[in-house]
Amino acid sequence: MSVTSPPAPMDPETAVRERYSAASARVEPALCCAVDYDPSLLRVIPKEVLERDYGCGDPSRFVRPGDSVLDLGSGGGKICFIASQLAGPEGRVIGVDANEEMLALARRAEREVSARLGYANVRFGRARIQDLALDLEALEAWLREHPVSDLDSLAALHATEAALRCDAPLVADESVDLVVSNCVLNLVREEDKRRLIREIFRVLRRGGRIAISDIVSDEPVPAHLRADPELWSGCISGAFLETELLSELEGAGFHGIRIESFAEKPFAVVEGIEFRAVTVTAQKGKQGPCFEANQAVLYRGPWRRVEDDDGHVYVRGERTAVCEKTYRLLTSAPYAGETIGIEPRVAVPADARAPFDCARTGPRDPRETKGAGYRETAQAGPGCGPDSGCC
User: Which of 35, 141, 172, 231 could bond to 237 as cystine, CB 3.0-4.6 Å?
Assistant: First the structure.
């Protein structure tokens, strides 16, 4: 009696590569959501790129002039070419994709876009987005000269990969201001997703930001759906759970995590599970020592109390003691509109600041900021009266 072998398990990378290679040659509407872009930014982009754009949001709207931008899974290059204009000639844009056909499409368009703009600030590289240090084109060039045929040559391959990551990374540590991605994180293998988030954190400078548009699910996706190559490559069954994406960002060390958009209608519904487009932003820069500078922040409201990413609780209208680092974070974007910063009457010199007890999350006595011996008495200024417009 013959025994039928079980089917080979679905390989997400193969499914994605095959589908997107085909989608680089012909339009596949099932791979995208309707997104409104600024039409003035689309005029310089070739038609074949616009037709083969597969995304679910517009993370490019978070690009600032002069930014160094990294686009993960850049495909035909549409977001890169939009970011190129927003960052301007003083900025730079790096597009990273693992698909050769999509990179070829983007590189053909790159010359045309730069000629229309009058400057060239975009380059494209080949890498897996969960391994941004390894330049796959450099590795492929090495393999042409050193084919792998036995265990010794396999060991040499692994050594070369390590050397390329260390000595010639495609994207270096702390080298970009903004990481964007448009409907690509969900295409990465489940076991590589945490590594992907940490790679994003690695390449960002301190103070850097992310703007990620992706598909998330409202319930955990069962194994049989994750094993479906059509659903996986279609940006569906590899989706992060809604809360999982946020918790992974928090676990990697991001702060100021914010849901910028949350689609009212699902992109797809499979077996009652809803998959919808979201855009999430976050910041890097809360790491480092904490020092006492006698500063406080006052939470404006409207909530009675809130908690930050380090577990500090802020009560509406209450002066809360914070370290110098947290004060700096909470009085700048994205928190500045929510807080009021209160500086000490006499600044504490940097070299005189003692370590701050980060476990402390409570009120700051006004005398800590004014000084215990402060006894000044002052009258209202002459400019404040019924005819001055002050009162």
Answer: 231
Whole-structure pTM value? 0.88
Task: Decide if 340 contacts 366 (C-beta within 8 A).
Answer: no
- The residues, ordered by sequence, that sit 6+ positions from 32 with a Cβ below 8 Å of its Cβ are 53, 54, 55, 56, 183
Give 208-261 as a DSSP string.
EEEEEEEEEESSPPPHHHHT-HHHHHTTSTTPEEHHHHHHHHHHHT-EEEEEEE
Residue 123 three-state SS: strand
Closest alpha carbon to 282 in 335, 239, 216: 335
212 phi/psi in degrees, rounded to 5: -115, 120
Give the tokens for residue 3. 């025994």
Residue 355 to residues 25, 196, 292, 296, 326, Cα–Cα distance (Å): 59, 34, 6, 16, 13
Q: What angle do CA 350, 356, 359 make, to 5 degrees?
A: 160
pLDDT digits (tens, 9 = 90+) for 91-133: 999 999 999 999 999 999 999 999 999 999 999 999 999 999 9
Q: DSSP letters along 65-77, please?
A: TT-EEEEET-TTS
Model confidence pLDDT, tens digit, residues 331-381 = 998 999 999 999 999 999 999 999 998 776 789 989 888 888 888 888 766
Domains of the chain: 12-133+169-283 (3.40.50.150), 135-167 (no CATH), 295-370 (3.40.5)
Closest CA relative to residue 259, chosen from 239, 284, 280, 236: 280
